[in-house]
Specification:
The protein is mainly beta. The chain has one helix and 25 strands. The chain has one helix at 2-12, and strands at 17-23, 34-38, 46-48, 54-60, 64-69, 72-77, 84-88, 92-94, 109-111, 114-123, 128-131, 148-153, 156-164, 169-173, 176-180, 183-190, 195-204, 208-217, 223-235, 238-245, 248-252, 255-259, 262-266, 271-276, 280-287. The strands form six sheets. It has a seven-stranded antiparallel beta sheet, with no helix packed on it. A four-stranded antiparallel beta sheet has the order 3-2-1-25, with no helix packed on it. A hairpin with a 3-residue loop joins strand 17 and strand 18 (208-217). The protein is globular, with a radius of gyration of 20 Å. It starts with a helix and ends with a strand.
Length: 289
């Protein structure tokens, strides 16, 4: 009985999130981006010391992290924590959240944010970066890169989702057309075509990608899972999701600093909670697979 209780207790405190955050310090004290793990509620937070200041991070499998600094790619298991230099690079980046197609725990890396220059993955056996063969995302819906488009709605055969690239879209709900100012960047079907997922958002020069997810589900009203997300970790087969809000400015004494919040939710339960907020900037998050 004691052993079972101990195992349950240890499982309960296993970190579920990893994120990069900058907790601003008052006055003239310097702050920097650092790497943290925590539970899904943001509790049991632990700082992981890194050799260089991190800018983004992802899980590799269940017990290893992969992160980027401005000049290199690094990795370590959680236990023992021993950061290892994988590759020196100023051009290597994680694929943008909205374009990623690999399952959780399988990071995609690209050069200069340009997928045409090659797609790379991390080899846990050699601890090196290898070129990947891209697997088509067969559930993705093809629609034009510009101009008008329509996407079939699971609930309304005679009322498809209609839009124009970079000029919003409209959908039928409760007997009338509803207009959204967001753009649709990707759309895909799951569950025997009964669910249609739409990756919505925009892009600004100050905040970068602004992303959200909408769900059009047969027999139910359309709903927004989240919006105003910069970096996000969402996978339809997993109900839990996390995202960092787009950055904005906040006052820190007499100066202004970039800040953002960290959210965690469950799309099946309809929850979306802020787990980190305040004078803090969170640019990257990943959920343990």
């Amino acid at each position: 009985m004691f052993l079972a209780t101990t195992i349950i207790a240890l499982a309960a405190i296993q970190p579920s999130l990893v994120f990069v955050a900058r907790f601003y310090k008052p006055g003239s004290a310097k702050s920097q981006f650092e790497l943290y793990v925590s539970d899904l509620a943001g509790g049991n937070r632990k700082l992981l010391k890194t050799t260089e200041e991190p800018v983004s991070v992802q899980w590799v499998g269940h017990d290893r992290l992969l992160w980027l600094s401005e000049s290199a790619l690094w990795t370590s298991k959680l236990s023992p924590w021993k950061p290892l230099l994988v590759k020196k690079s100023t051009t290597l980046h994680f694929e943008r959240s909205r374009d990623r197609i690999s399952a959780p725990g399988m990071p995609e890396l690209i050069e200069d944010f340009d997928r045409t220059k090659g797609l790379y993955g991390f080899n846990v056996e050699t601890l090196k970066v290898d070129q990947m063969v891209e697997t088509p995302h067969h559930t993705d819906i093809d629609f034009p890169e510009d101009g008008d488009f329509t996407i079939p709605d699971p609930n309304h055969d005679d009322h498809p989702i209609k839009g124009k690239r970079f000029d919003g879209f409209s959908y039928f709900d409760k007997g009338k057309e509803t207009k959204s100012e967001w753009d649709i960047f990707r759309a895909w079907r799951t569950d025997g075509n009964s669910k249609l997922w739409a990756l919505i958002g925009s892009h600004t020069s100050s905040s970068g990608d602004i992303n959200g997810i909408m769900l059009f589900e047969k027999g139910k009203s359309p709903r927004t899972i989240f919006e105003d997300g910069n970096c996000f970790d969402f996978w339809p087969e997993r109900s839990t999701f996390a995202y960092c809000t787009s950055r904005d400015t906040s006052n820190l004494g007499k100066k202004q600093v970039w800040t953002s919040a960290l959210h965690v939710g469950d799309w099946k339960k309809g929850t979306n909670k802020t787990v980190l907020n305040g004078v803090i900037w969170v640019p990257s998050v990943s959920i343990r697979p």
